[in-house]
Amino acid sequence: MSLLSNYLSVRKFSETICEPLQIEDYVVQPIEDVSPPKWHLGHTAWFFETFILKPNLIAYREFDPNYNYVFNSYYETVGARVIRTDRGNLSRPTVEDVYKYRAYVDEAMESFLCREPEESVKELLILGLNHEQQHQELLRYDIKYILGHNPLFPAYADEHIEQDLKVEDQVWLKVDAGVYEIGHEGNDFCFDNELGRHKVYLADFEISTSLVSNAEYLEFIEDKGYQDFKHWHAEAWDWVNTNKITAPLYWHFVDEEWLRYDLAGGLKPLKLEDAVTHISFYEAAAFASWKGMRLPTEFEWEIAAQKLDWGKLWEWTESSYLPYPGFSKAPGAIGEYNGKFMVSQKVLRGASVATSPNHKRLTYRNFFYPGLRWHYNGLRLSK
Amino acid sequence: MSLLSNYLSVRKFSETICEPLQIEDYVVQPIEDVSPPKWHLGHTAWFFETFILKPNLIAYREFDPNYNYVFNSYYETVGARVIRTDRGNLSRPTVEDVYKYRAYVDEAMESFLCREPEESVKELLILGLNHEQQHQELLRYDIKYILGHNPLFPAYADEHIEQDLKVEDQVWLKVDAGVYEIGHEGNDFCFDNELGRHKVYLADFEISTSLVSNAEYLEFIEDKGYQDFKHWHAEAWDWVNTNKITAPLYWHFVDEEWLRYDLAGGLKPLKLEDAVTHISFYEAAAFASWKGMRLPTEFEWEIAAQKLDWGKLWEWTESSYLPYPGFSKAPGAIGEYNGKFMVSQKVLRGASVATSPNHKRLTYRNFFYPGLRWHYNGLRLSK
Amino acid sequence: MSLLSNYLSVRKFSETICEPLQIEDYVVQPIEDVSPPKWHLGHTAWFFETFILKPNLIAYREFDPNYNYVFNSYYETVGARVIRTDRGNLSRPTVEDVYKYRAYVDEAMESFLCREPEESVKELLILGLNHEQQHQELLRYDIKYILGHNPLFPAYADEHIEQDLKVEDQVWLKVDAGVYEIGHEGNDFCFDNELGRHKVYLADFEISTSLVSNAEYLEFIEDKGYQDFKHWHAEAWDWVNTNKITAPLYWHFVDEEWLRYDLAGGLKPLKLEDAVTHISFYEAAAFASWKGMRLPTEFEWEIAAQKLDWGKLWEWTESSYLPYPGFSKAPGAIGEYNGKFMVSQKVLRGASVATSPNHKRLTYRNFFYPGLRWHYNGLRLSK
Amino acid sequence: MSLLSNYLSVRKFSETICEPLQIEDYVVQPIEDVSPPKWHLGHTAWFFETFILKPNLIAYREFDPNYNYVFNSYYETVGARVIRTDRGNLSRPTVEDVYKYRAYVDEAMESFLCREPEESVKELLILGLNHEQQHQELLRYDIKYILGHNPLFPAYADEHIEQDLKVEDQVWLKVDAGVYEIGHEGNDFCFDNELGRHKVYLADFEISTSLVSNAEYLEFIEDKGYQDFKHWHAEAWDWVNTNKITAPLYWHFVDEEWLRYDLAGGLKPLKLEDAVTHISFYEAAAFASWKGMRLPTEFEWEIAAQKLDWGKLWEWTESSYLPYPGFSKAPGAIGEYNGKFMVSQKVLRGASVATSPNHKRLTYRNFFYPGLRWHYNGLRLSK
């Protein structure tokens, strides 16, 4: 696929995800972690405008100078930004304006991509596309949160990504102790945090071939797992009690039955055979402790996954998100991409049903704070 | 005007106010005090559905049972409600749905009003219309807040209510000491908090015939009034410092010049001859103290206003919002209307350019917490 | 009594109140409103040092220049102060140091008072003594809070001020409508907020000759008064729910019985015949509403109290704390005494068992925020 | 040394540390992380009473049943506890009571230790002594915080532990790549988190033989390191700005000079040749980034430290505090000791001048949240 057609196809996909939305759905920000869908659409356009068009297309005229202020996310290098909790207070630019902005940027990009760009720009462009794919996945999470927390429980679409989360039968895969190689290899795109390729020593371990199911997780709930501090980290126990957590996100106990919000609309009975999802690291670790097992490290995961079927849900690991040996940040704004988050977060490995096509990689390192759970995550046991 | 045509004209006016809005503007709630415009539109329809149609129109079928949950404001009698800070997180019902809801309720009301309702229902209906007019004024405040806090400073309309705020020349009106009568008299509609009519003793006082102007207020700013604790109540001084307040709401100091957000779009130079507005009680009291004067009480105001020109801006008074002698709450949900707010708030008297037609009364008692200032208020000196 | 002996007797009484304390009791600040006893002792000495000795005794040498920083309360005129929530973090100066400071100041005051001071200084001195008496009453509240919130429920003293709170039989006193005079008259000391003497018009009213008893208040509790929003102001209802309030402060429901902390140590059964105390204005108003009655205004109280027995507990009134007609602040730091608190607080009238001798006056206006209840307050019904 | 004499000497040392304190210093809790010294003294006694005496000494009579409530720290197994932020609100038990409690427990322990206890009790006892030594170090931190944040800057003692923090000349130690063994070995006491001994692969690295000095850190400050987001993690940058951090804890910029609080009393000029201390992980990492270097991992540290001089300050590492392979918690309350903190914290290695004698170990893993800095920590560069 040419760079241009790749560009156009990625850009189009963001809009496809938003197609089922009403204008109002694009605007709200029910919690700080969730961004309004129109913000994602604007921000990803802003990325190309700011890092590709403005520095490289001499005659390029900015769509609207105020948009820099509105659509910057966290690139301190680039200047003041709307603070994150304010995103949901902005009724303007309208959704229509944002789509015009995207079309404007895309048209300029089309002109720009008539000629083969130089290597460094091409790299930035590919980064921009991967960046947009990450926001596509966030769009999935955020749209679900917006609809799934509305008291009317509106539908996203009849056909949707959650229809195939069934868990396979469990087998234990054994991996032998030894020195293994970790991290991205080769010339394909990867994020800076997947480099450099390096050796780790792993002790013997066993890992489950399947994700934990709703049925298994329900046993934990029914065994009063949420009421027994023994299974929980100290800060997790505070989190459970402060937030009165008693089940995964989107679960509702109605008339003695567990229901969950369904993207096809309304609350539906839990599918016991599906993989459990929308749990925090705290819950994943508490469940594992209750089972007398543990989560794999990200290194164990990367080695074992070569022989596993993976990719329906991001899998919480025991590993903290830290730099690999020899890690170095790129200079300038792009250098803010990953390194500055390398404290206090946990690594998730794999991919999910919400991950965009061609955005899946064995060495991919996703990361979230341990108390978050609005993303499509799950849990695989190790021992 | 017949009850029906009165009903239809009031109902229509809420929609007229919202006509210049984009769909997105209907949805957001930038601060707790501001409600999304679509919420005002839904809530005022809900009032008629809940208090008139459901109890009195036998065959009436609720538009949507979930709307009770979404559009109740604070009537604890009527059941659970969306907590106030959550209103801006609701993308559904959509704006279109809300307009359908209004049309549905209006059609049912038209049928209902074919026959003359009994007296108690008529009273409730008139209360409902006054209630909607109060929300019309809140709509004005909230729309201004939403647009005036957007970094793009979008226009509401070319012609708008702030174009005639010019202040008259100041004269001091003297009022003699004596026993005066306060409160509503006669059979016209009034709120319960304007009753009962009662006597108060007033000492001699003088009151200005004009509101304080931007020019005068600017002197206070330039004399460092915001930096001198002497003029401020203790809790006001905390408010100034915690919120870093240095000027009225909507004022911006740009390139050595004071600008203010303009409903016609953008930031425009301050009109010095206009009445100062969008100040808190704290600021009004501090300004009066700096002048060596004071605010009138609501009783002084009500007596003096018989000889004053008033009504461009709600005027802060020194009075706290308390029950008049003999005040009693109506039974049921309607009784929650006023009495439960009679603590910690200050009274404002008069009316404003945002007040709906026919919703102005000498005895009207408006009330806000002393730190609020997004409403159209102002200040008249007394001594 | 001479000025000097009056001075010495007031000063001594502060120390008498603290006599039963352990050193540790002097230090802690369990909530923002409560100050450490050693702080009260230091602050009242600081008042005489700062306003009498430093300006008037030429050769006076400050005890310790840092004490100005530590013991100023809220006199912005006098400079930076330890912020209020930090008072309980200061282990130094020690209790012994504070007593030395008091002795040092008292010795200097003795020299100073050998000669009759000029009139303006005398006035300041009398203000200082009244100020210290106010802190004596606060000491009573704060010591009770410190001991009564300790899980060991230690004793203050076997004989104490709460032993005589029995309520008399209830009779209704009728007062006729008319114009009455309010406020302090004559040359005795009063606070600026009791001036100027002025006329008010009062409608007919009736007022109870007795305070509400624990027995009556218990009926309110048992009738589920704390669970019925109808009786509560809107902000009171939030207060009840946020703080999970179900009874007056210091009450504990243990083994199906209501107990209360006893200054003689431990938890003891409630005395049903005693006046109810340690309730907020919110609770007082809710109780009155449940009874179908109301609280008196401070003006009604001042007129009626001429024929009532009063003074065991400060009585919540319906009145907000506002300036009397013609009120003006004194210049300088002393002017910060009262006026700056005249917003958002409620007036209490009377006096309490914790009030110091000779510090009781018909026209005295005490004031607290409506949600506070650690002071000795109570409730008298009106209708 | 016999078990008993070891017991008595450890117990004595806690009291020796507190000897210079005034009673008031034992009581306060200026921030949540700091506990009142009397609480440490009581809590360490409670440990022996609860885990040794009550289960093993048949005739043992509890000193005071309420003390369990007051002195439990975080052992959920053992029952309700005073919530952590309330510790500074408790004036009782008094300091004298706490010393009596210690004497009572020590006497009972002396009787108990007349006979050789069985192995499992002996292990618990040794854990108790190590636990007390940890609290001895915390006492050092907390006492410094209490005195060093008092506006009078009182002295702890003329001779004190900070007098020998001079940094050596810097040399770079090279370590070759390879598989190394990590974790405690042998039969001596260690905490559960130092087990099990396991292999790690390390790439080549270099590590400084000396800690970073105040002089070097000052360069970072003067190069505006605290104002340049580039060096900081995203959450660190929020921390710097929210808390307005501009230098290590206890540093004050007075009259154009950097001073620091001195345990001998008052503020003294910074000793440039001393190791920098009282910095957060965030600051350590930002400094390293500014230098173009990094912090060592705890594994690199443990291998390199065999050839390094270490022990004046706890050294921040890049490693998160996670379980070693095969880690398992002890059953019961003792199992809450370490495992439940294994999320969101960073590892520090080494020991400090505040560490108690015989409480220093190459494999010791200390851990704190990345934003804390009241402990004696420092920084060693790696590359």
UniProtKB/TrEMBL annotation, chains A, B, C, D:
InterPro entries per UniProt:
CTDL_fold, DinB-like, EgtB, Sulfatase_Mod_Factor_Kinase, SUMF_dom, SUMF_sf
Q: Can you give the residue ranges of the DinB-like domain?
A: 16-137
- Every copy of the Sulfatase-modifying factor enzyme-like domain together lies at 172-306
Q: Please state the pathway this protein functions in, per its UniProt record.
A: Amino-acid biosynthesis; ergothioneine biosynthesis
Q: Which domain of life is it from?
A: Bacteria
Instruction: Give the range the annotation lists for the signal sequence.
Output: none
Q: Name one Pfam family in it.
A: FGE-sulfatase
Q: Which PANTHER family does the protein's record reference?
A: HERCYNINE OXYGENASE, SULFATASE MODIFYING FACTOR 1, 2
Q: Which protein, by its recorded name, is this?
A: Sulfatase maturase
